Amino acid sequence: MSQPGTESSGQRILVVDDDPALAEMLQLVLRKERFITEWCSSGTAALPAFEKFRPDLILLDLMLPGLSGIEVCREIRRVSGTPIIMLTARSDTHDVVAGLEAGADDYVSKPFKSKELVARIRARLRQPLDAAPEADLMTVGDITVDVRAHQVTRDGEEISLTPLEFDLLVALARRPHEVFSRDLLLQEVWGYRHAADNRLVNVHVQRLRSKIERDPEHPSIVITVRGVGYRAGDGGEEDR
């Protein structure tokens, strides 16, 4: 049930978790932070709840009755770029990567601290800073990035990216001659201020490449600099 606070921020968060006690705690924390919340307890109920509630962000448990969190994530990504933060009791590489590859923007391992979770949520919901006028339109290889319109095109055709994928591309495109370490990208795109999981960067670079590269196996727009990180390319073929 949706229970907005008396002074809500207007931002809506859908909590999908089959643990009623945890879900209640999460909603209390979120309402205290002035979010509007809705809760459902199964993967099967998550998709109808998403359609009805139209959240600004989803907290999605990995292990759910009915559809799994990974299946729910995939289905939502077919129709929406709404930010998704996975909640998981599992932190091994396979489960984390599977969730990220399905389209999750970030993940938090249980048990977690409320302040850390809220910080992750606010980072994903933050409004992008207006670019300087000269940086409104940027070209990387053969794609054009319109920052104000939040749009990426190739030959006049729009390329659909999630907000996080767009932020990742813009971070690289704004400083085309700079090599970004994974830690720096985590700070600039995810909002981390401490060492975190570099798998977030690696998986999302792969997802971004699958959408913007003509040949993701031989990327020319997001280039790997071995042993360092990533940089924007000029459209010429280079090693990953």
From TrEMBL:
Q: Does the keyword DNA-binding apply?
A: yes
Q: Which SMART domains match?
A: REC, Trans_reg_C
GO biological process annotation, one example: positive regulation of DNA-templated transcription
Q: Name one GO cellular component term.
A: protein-DNA complex
User: Which residue positions does 4-aspartylphosphate occur at?
Assistant: 61
PROSITE patterns linked to this entry = OMPR_PHOB, RESPONSE_REGULATORY
Query: DNA-binding region spans which residues?
Result: 135-234
Q: Which GO terms describe its molecular function?
A: phosphorelay response regulator activity; transcription cis-regulatory region binding
Q: Which Pfam families match?
A: Response_reg, Trans_reg_C
Q: Report which superkingdom the organism of origin falls in.
A: Bacteria
Where would I find the Response regulatory domain in this sequence?
12-125
Keywords attached to this Swiss-Prot or TrEMBL record, sorted alphabetically, are: DNA-binding, Phosphoprotein, Transcription, Transcription regulation, Two-component regulatory system
**All copies of domain OmpR/PhoB-type, residue ranges:** 135-234
The protein here is known as DNA-binding response regulator MtrA
Q: Which organism is it from?
A: Acidipropionibacterium acidipropionici (strain ATCC 4875 / DSM 20272 / JCM 6432 / NBRC 12425 / NCIMB 8070 / 4) (Propionibacterium acidipropionici)
